Automatic annotation (TrEMBL):
<keyword id="KW-0472">Membrane</keyword>
<feature type="region of interest" description="Disordered">
    <location>
        <begin position="764"/>
        <end position="791"/>
    </location>
</feature>
<feature type="transmembrane region" description="Helical">
    <location>
        <begin position="278"/>
        <end position="300"/>
    </location>
</feature>
<keyword id="KW-0812">Transmembrane</keyword>
<feature type="transmembrane region" description="Helical">
    <location>
        <begin position="321"/>
        <end position="342"/>
    </location>
</feature>
<feature type="transmembrane region" description="Helical">
    <location>
        <begin position="501"/>
        <end position="525"/>
    </location>
</feature>
<feature type="transmembrane region" description="Helical">
    <location>
        <begin position="432"/>
        <end position="454"/>
    </location>
</feature>
<feature type="transmembrane region" description="Helical">
    <location>
        <begin position="185"/>
        <end position="202"/>
    </location>
</feature>
<feature type="region of interest" description="Disordered">
    <location>
        <begin position="705"/>
        <end position="744"/>
    </location>
</feature>
<feature type="compositionally biased region" description="Polar residues">
    <location>
        <begin position="780"/>
        <end position="791"/>
    </location>
</feature>
<feature type="transmembrane region" description="Helical">
    <location>
        <begin position="545"/>
        <end position="565"/>
    </location>
</feature>
<feature type="transmembrane region" description="Helical">
    <location>
        <begin position="354"/>
        <end position="374"/>
    </location>
</feature>
<feature type="transmembrane region" description="Helical">
    <location>
        <begin position="95"/>
        <end position="112"/>
    </location>
</feature>
<protein>
    <recommendedName>
        <fullName>Integral membrane protein</fullName>
    </recommendedName>
</protein>
<feature type="transmembrane region" description="Helical">
    <location>
        <begin position="247"/>
        <end position="266"/>
    </location>
</feature>
<feature type="transmembrane region" description="Helical">
    <location>
        <begin position="386"/>
        <end position="412"/>
    </location>
</feature>
<feature type="transmembrane region" description="Helical">
    <location>
        <begin position="132"/>
        <end position="150"/>
    </location>
</feature>
Length: 791
C-alpha cells in the first residue's frame, strides 16, 4: 500500500475471489465469520478476514505467501472477496424491473452480433437496426398504456352508459365539462405520461449511479497499441449514448401520447367540415408531431457507442431540447383536444389497429434486415461454434418484440374484460392484438413438442453416459442406481448446449405465426372467430378455440408477470431468483435501450480493475484472480481492462465458467475463439476447471489439451484441465466413508484440485516483483498502469 515499507522478499500474494450469480456473503466466500470491508460501499465492496486486514504492512509470512508452514506446506495467499450481488438483487423494489424484460432482451440482441472482418459499416448498421427495434418497443409499451387508458377506459367505456353503470368511478366523465370526448382523452393521457416520466426517472437515476463510473486510465491497450474488444477504454463507459437514447425514447413516448390524444380530434375536424382554424391547427400539429418523430429516429440512428475512447461529452442541448419539445407538443395536443366540438361523440374504438399493425410490421421488417446483416457479418468470419450461425441476435430481437406484444396484448385484454364484463357493449382491444393472441397456442404447442423431444433424447442418452461415469471412477465400488443417477445429471447438464435449437425454432415459428396473424388482422379487419364464420365448420371451430385459448393465455401471462413481481418484492428467495435473471441479462451495457435495467458490470469491472492495478503497483506482489460462474466473466472483463504490463503479472483461475459455452457461442464478437485466445496469451497464466455435471460451466477450448498439472506449475500453453471428478467417489471408500454429493455447478473449492491449481499458479508467478518506489516524502510514486513489469 502507498507509503508502507518495502514488502518482504518474494512479495505478498493475493487471491481475489469473485462470486457468481445469485450472490453470497463475505463470510461464506472467505469461510470465516469475522470479515472486514477494506474497500467499497454497501452496494459492492472488497472484504478480507479480520486477521488479514494489515497483512502486507505486518509482513506476516504465514499469511502473505512468503514462506511455508511448519509442516513444509505452501502458505496460502491472502484472500479477498469482491461481493457484487447488491448491484442486481439487493433491493426488493428491483423485482418490478421484471416488467422491463423486453427492453433487457433487445439490449442483449445488440451484443450478439457475429465477429466481423473488414470495415465497420455492417457493424454500425447492425447496431442501428437493434436500436430502432428498441425504439419500437418503447412506442409499443406506451401505445399499450394509451390503449388501456385512452381507448378502452376514456373513449369506449366512458362513452357507453352500460359500462359507466358498472363502474361508478367513471360517472363524472358522463356529465359536465369532462363529458366531451377530447377532454376525457386529455385526462386519461395522465396515465401513459406518468409511465413515461417513471421510465425516464429510473433510467436517469441508474445512469447517474452506473454509467458514471470512471474506467482506469490506459485500460486494455497492449504494447503494440491494439486493444481487445472488452478492453477498449470506453467499453464500460456508455454515459453519452445512454443519455442520448434516453432523450430520444422519452420524446418518442411523449409523441405517442400526443398522437393518441389528438388524432381522432384532427380526423373529426377534417371530416365534419368544422371551423377552418381547428382543421388548420390539427394539420399543423400533426406535421409537427411527424417532424419531431423523424428527428427522434435520426437521433437514434445517428450515433452508436464510442468504445475506443472515453467519451465525456453529453449532448446537453439535445438531451434537454428533444424531451422538452415533445412535452410542449403534448401540451398543445391536450389543448387542441379539449377545444369544444359540439357534434363530436365517441363511437367504436380509436385507431389502435393501425398503430399496433404499423409497429408490428416495422418490427418484422427490422428483424428481417437485421438477419441479413448478421448473416453477412458471419460469412466474413465464420465461427462454427456461434449460436444459430450468427443469427442469434435477430432471433433474440424477434423474441423481445414478441414478448413486448404479449405483455401489451395481455394488459389490454385483461382491462377490456374487466371493463366490459359480459355485456359485450365495448368494441374491445384492437383486432390485431386478438390475432396475435390467437397464434400463441400454436407457438406453445411447437415449443412444448420440441421440449418433449429434447427430454426424450436426454433420457436415452443416460445409457450412453453410464460407461463414461464408470471410466471416470475406475475400480471404485459402486451401486447401479447411484451410477445411473450421476449419468442422468450429466445428460441433463448437456441440455444447455441445445438452447440455440430451442431459441431458433421458437423465433422461426413466432415470425411465421406473427406474420400470418398480422396479415389476417389487416386483411379482414375482424377477430379470427368472426372472420371464419363463413368458413367450414372445422375451421371456424378451430379459430374460435384458438382465439379463446389465446386470449386466456395472454391474460394469464400478464397476471403471472404481476404476481411474480409482487411475490419477489415480499419474498427474499423469489427475489434471489429474479436476481439471478438480472445477473445474466444485465452484464452488458445499455447500448440499444436506455430503459433496460442497468448494467452492473459498469460498476463491477472498474472496481476490480482499480483494485488489482493499485494493489500490484503498491506492493509488487503476486495476484491470482479467481472467478466462479458469472464471476469468471467479470474476472475476464476486468483482466482485459488492465494495462498490458499489469495484465501480464496476473494469473487467472476460472471454474464453472460459461465464458465459452454460453458467452462464446451467443456473443462471438466479444467472447469468441479469437478473443479468448488473446486473453490466454496476455495474462501470465490461465487455468479453467469444469465438470461434466455442470449445466452452466464448461471448457474454454483454448490452447492444448491437458490432463495433469506438473510439479513446477501448470502448463500455460493450455487453459482447460481435464473434467473434474463429480462426485469425488461413486461409493463408500476409506477416503470417502459417506456418500459424496454430486456438486454440479457449485463448491468447486471443495475439490482438492482447486487448491492444487491455485498453488501451482502462485508458484509460477514471478517472485520478487518490484517494490513501490518512494519519493522524498515517503509516498509511493508508482501509479496504476504505469507500465512497471518484472521483466
Amino acid at each position: 500500500m502507498p507509503g508502507t515499507d518495502d514488502p518482504p522478499a518474494g512479495g505478498p500474494t493475493l487471491e481475489l475471489l469473485v462470486h457468481g450469480v445469485g450472490g453470497t456473503t463475505p463470510a461464506e466466500m472467505l469461510d470465516d465469520p469475522r470479515t472486514v470491508r477494506v474497500a467499497g460501499d454497501g452496494v459492492a465492496a472488497v472484504f478480507r478476514r479480520a486477521d488479514d486486514v494489515d497483512a502486507e504492512r505486518a509482513g506476516r509470512a504465514g499469511r502473505t505467501g512468503a514462506g511455508t508452514t511448519e509442516d513444509g506446506a505452501p502458505v496460502p495467499p491472502v484472500q479477498e472477496a469482491y461481493v457484487w450481488c447488491n448491484l442486481t438483487s439487493g433491493n426488493g423494489s428491483r423485482a418490478l424491473w421484471l416488467l422491463l424484460l423486453p427492453f433487457m432482451v433487445v439490449n442483449l440482441a445488440h451484443w450478439m452480433r457475429p465477429a466481423a472482418r473488414g470495415d465497420g459499416r455492417a457493424v454500425r448498421l447492425h447496431g442501428t437496426l437493434v436500436r430502432l427495434a428498441g425504439l419500437s418497443l418503447t412506442v409499443l409499451l406506451v401505445a399499450a398504456a394509451c390503449e388501456v387508458a385512452l381507448d378502452l377506459t376514456a373513449w369506449q367505456c366512458a362513452g357507453t352508459p352500460a359500462c359507466v353503470a358498472s363502474h361508478s368511478w367513471l360517472a363524472f366523465l358522463t356529465d359536465g365539462w369532462w363529458s366531451a370526448p377530447g377532454r376525457r382523452l386529455a385526462l386519461a393521457a395522465v396515465v401513459p405520461t406518468a409511465l413515461t416520466v417513471l421510465l425516464w426517472y429510473l433510467s436517469h437515476r441508474t445512469w447517474s449511479a452506473y454509467e458514471s463510473q470512471q474506467p482506469l486510465a490506459g485500460a486494455g491497450r497492449d504494447e503494440h497499441g491494439d486493444d481487445a474488444p472488452l478492453g477498449r477504454p470506453g467499453f464500460w463507459y456508455g454515459r453519452r449514448l445512454v443519455a442520448r437514447l434516453r432523450a430520444a425514447h422519452t420524446a418518442a413516448a411523449l409523441l405517442t401520447v400526443a398522437a393518441a390524444v389528438s388524432a381522432d380530434a384532427a380526423r373529426h375536424d377534417r371530416a365534419e367540415g368544422g371551423p377552418a382554424l381547428l382543421a388548420l391547427s390539427g394539420g399543423l400539429l400533426e406535421a409537427a408531431l411527424a417532424a419531431t418523430a423523424l428527428t427522434v429516429v435520426w437521433v437514434v440512428c445517428r450515433r452508436g457507442r464510442s468504445e475506443r475512447r472515453v467519451d465525456h461529452a453529453l449532448d446537453a442541448r439535445l438531451r434537454r431540447a428533444l424531451p422538452l419539445g415533445s412535452a410542449a407538443l403534448l401540451l398543445l395536443a391536450v389543448v387542441y383536444a379539449c377545444w369544444s366540438r359540439p357534434g363530436w361523440r365517441s363511437a367504436g374504438p380509436l385507431a389502435g389497429d393501425a398503430v399496433f399493425g404499423a409497429v408490428f410490421l416495422a418490427q418484422g421488417l427490422l428483424v428481417v434486415a437485421l438477419a441479413a446483416v448478421a448473416r453477412t457479418l458471419h460469412r466474413s468470419r465464420p465461427d462454427a461454434r456461434a449460436a444459430l450461425r450468427g443469427l442469434a441476435g435477430p432471433a433474440v430481437a424477434l423474441l423481445a418484440c414478441a414478448l413486448g406484444g404479449v405483455m401489451s396484448g395481455g394488459v389490454a385484454q385483461r382491462v377490456a374484460d374487466w371493463l366490459d364484463g359480459r355485456s359485450g357493449a365495448l368494441a374491445g382491444p384492437p383486432v390485431v392484438l386478438t390475432w396475435q393472441a390467437s397464434v400463441i397456442p400454436g407457438l406453445l404447442a411447437v415449443v412444448l413438442s420440441l421440449l418433449v423431444v429434447l427430454a426424450h433424447r436426454a433420457w436415452r442418452s443416460v445409457r450412453d453416459e453410464i460407461p463414461a461415469v464408470l471410466r471416470d471412477h475406475p475400480g471404485e465400488p459402486h451401486d447401479p442406481v447411484r451410477v445411473r443417477g450421476v449419468a442422468r445429471v450429466r445428460a441433463l447438464a448437456a441440455l444447455t448446449d441445445r438452447a440455440p435449437l430451442l431459441v431458433g425454432v421458437a423465433a422461426a415459428v413466432t415470425f411465421l405465426l406473427g406474420a400470418g396473424a398480422l396479415a389476417g388482422a389487416l386483411g379482414t379487419g375482424r377477430a379470427p372467430a368472426d372472420a371464419a364464420r363463413n368458413a367450414p365448420v372445422a375451421v371456424a371451430g378451430l379459430a374460435e378455440v384458438a382465439q379463446a385459448i389465446g386470449s386466456w393465455l395472454i391474460g394469464l401471462g400478464f397476471v403471472l408477470f404481476v404476481t411474480f413481481g409482487r411475490r419477489a418484492y415480499r419474498d427474499a428467495s423469489a427475489r434471489r431468483t429474479i436476481g439471478i435473471l438480472w445477473d445474466v441479462g444485465t452484464f452488458w451495457p445499455r447500448a440499444a435501450h436506455p430503459f433496460a435495467p442497468p448494467c452492473y458490470a459498469e460498476r463491477a469491472v472498474p472496481d476490480l480493475t482499480w483494485r488489482m492495478a493499485t494493489w500490484t503497483a503498491s506492493t509488487g506482489g503476486r495476484l491470482v484472480l479467481s472467478g466462479h460462474s458469472q464471476g469468471s466473466v467479470l474476472a475476464a472483463a476486468a483482466a482485459w481492462q488492465l494495462p498490458a504490463p499489469v495484465r501480464a503479472r496476473v494469473a487467472l483461475l476460472t471454474y464453472g465458467s460459461p465464458l465459452e459455452r454460453l458467452y462464446g457461442r451467443w456473443f462471438p464478437a466479444h467472447f469468441g475463439p479469437e478473443a479468448l485466445h488473446r486473453l490466454h496469451q496476455e495474462v501470465d497464466c490461465w487455468r479453467n476447471l469444469h465438470r461434466r455435471t455442470d449445466p452452466i460451466g464448461g471448457p474454454v477450448l483454448v490452447g492444448d489439451a491437458d490432463t495433469t498439472t506438473p510439479p513446477g506449475g501448470p502448463p500455460c500453453s493450455s487453459v482447460d484441465r481435464e473434467p473434474l471428478k463429480d462426485p469425488l467417489s461413486l461409493g463408500r471408500t476409506a477416503a470417502h466413508p459417506l456418500p459424496s454429493p454430486v456438486l454440479g455447478h457449485g463448491d468447486y473449492q471443495a475439490d482438492p484440485v482447486f487448491a492444487e491449481e491455485r498453488a501451482a499458479l502462485l508458484a509460477r508467478l514471478p517472485k520478487g516483483l518490484p517494490a513501490p518506489r518512494h519519493g522524498d516524502d515517503g509516498q509511493d510514486t508508482a501509479q496504476p498502469g504505469s507500465g512497471r513489469s518484472s521483466g
